[in-house]
Amino acid sequence: MSKVTLDERRFRERFEEFNEIGATAAGGVDRPALSDENRAARDLLVEWFRDAGLEVRIDEMGNIFGRREGREPDADPVLFGSHVDSQYNGGRFDGVVGVLGALEVVQALDDAGVVTDRPLEVVSWSNEEGVRFQPDMLGSGVYAGQFDLEYALGVEDDDGRTFGDELERIGYDGDAPCEADGVHCYFELHVEQGPYLEDAGLSVGVVEGVFGFSWMNVAFEGQANHAGPTPMDMRQDAFVATADVTKAVRELTATGGEDLVGTVGSVDVWPNAINVIPERVEFTVDVRSYDDDVVDRAVDRVREEVAWAADREGLEFAFEEIMRLDASAFDDDCIETIAAAAADAGYEYERLVSGAGHDASYLNAIAPTGMIFVPSVDGVSHRESEFTEWADVVAGTEVLLRAVREQATV
Ligand SMILES: [Zn+2]
């Protein structure tokens, strides 16, 4: 294959310019899905796609595609990209690296005069983060047939505004059907969001799959009473039981399976007053592993711990598993393509599994899929201090370029 070189300077300048949109004082970005800042980011992206000669297509979920024709126009395209929505006060790298990296790949091919056999499509998925509209990965989820379009458009934010109305407001309620119509394969470049690659001193990770997870809602109902006169042996304290379960989740991760992680992340307490015994607590539990049996057993254990804690404290309880996603192993051929691309580019790499969900998890259900990780400094993400060394961003993009070219060759 003829040599194709990334234009590191163009790529870097574009990255900096893009992240001026919604920039925060602490060095992050605030561009939640379908906000005015998200619209501005989309507008700039579409402008750049057009400047790069890509044919832009916006679908009913506001997913943005940029297509570059190949020598064989009827062949299924190689699809690659990520997302440009952010957490509230999130980082500059999460998602953006994968979309702007994808754009750099097609421009580098243009610079070198290389036409691939298959068409190439760069994509930016809507609402990956799921901070303003839940669930997360909504755009890719509809595209991959995991959610109904009607359901997704009707999802509301905390102010009661629907996804569909907000999409229309920012002008991204596109006409193209939101469904996969023949995808040869999907690649996504993303920051690791964990400490593994940095600790190992590597620029590139070949992702073999994504953890499965379970989300649980728990409620304890006890008795409110005055914090002073009520004897300790007469209390039905919903928060004490919550604390017991939280501790049990932590202990469970030590014995429940090597890669098991567990988190009590959201807790609401009533009446939440300094001098009143907590009457009601609602909280969430998130458990994840690459082994679905480990997740199964962890869910059973959490359910038991909830019942025991309620019994000890004399509480009513409710337990509900609200979401379950099995672990997904990426396509062997895509994994090997990425590994070979990393080796050819001269990067040492390791194979790893993602603890976080990605658009690639849904794409994996409908097309052969692979992911490339680049290191997150201190394993930090979803924070303004999120950082990846630029050389590592370039390394990951170089691997993406090679993997895309390989798969685009018939
Ligand atoms: Zn992301």
Summarize the structure in words.
The protein is an alpha/beta fold and 410 residues long. The chain folds into 2 domains: 8-210 and 327-407, Aminopeptidase (3-Layer(aba) Sandwich); 212-325, 2-Layer Sandwich (Alpha-Beta Plaits). It contains 12 helices and 14 strands. It has helices at residues 8-18, 36-51, 96-111, 138-143, 149-154, 163-169, 196-200, 238-255, 292-313, 332-344, 359-363, 390-407; strands at residues 55-58, 64-68, 78-83, 120-125, 185-191, 204-210, 212-221, 261-263, 267-270, 280-289, 316-325, 328-329, 349-354, 369-374. Helix 3 links the parallel strand 3 and strand 4. Helix 1 packs antiparallel against helix 3 and helix 3 packs across helix 12 (390-407). The chain starts with 7 loop residues before the first helix and ends with a helix. The model has no long low-confidence stretch (mean pLDDT 97). Bound molecules: zinc ion. Zinc ion binds at residues 83, 94-95, 128, 190.
Shape: elongated
CATH fold descriptor of the largest domain: Aminopeptidase
* Major sheet attributes: 9 strands, mixed
Query: Rg from C-alpha positions?
Result: 23 Å
CATH architectural name of the largest domain: 3-Layer(aba) Sandwich
Specify the helix fraction band: 25-40%
Uncertain ranges: none
Q: Which ligands appear in the coordinates?
A: zinc ion
**Secondary-structure element pattern, one letter each:** HHEEEHEHHHEHEEHEEEHEEHEHEH
Query: How many domains make up the coordinates?
Result: 2
CATH H-level superfamily of the largest domain? Zn peptidases
On the 0 to 100 scale, the average pLDDT is 97
The SS-based structural class is: alpha/beta
Q: How much strand? A: 15-25%
CATH C-level label of the largest domain = Alpha Beta
Strand count: 14
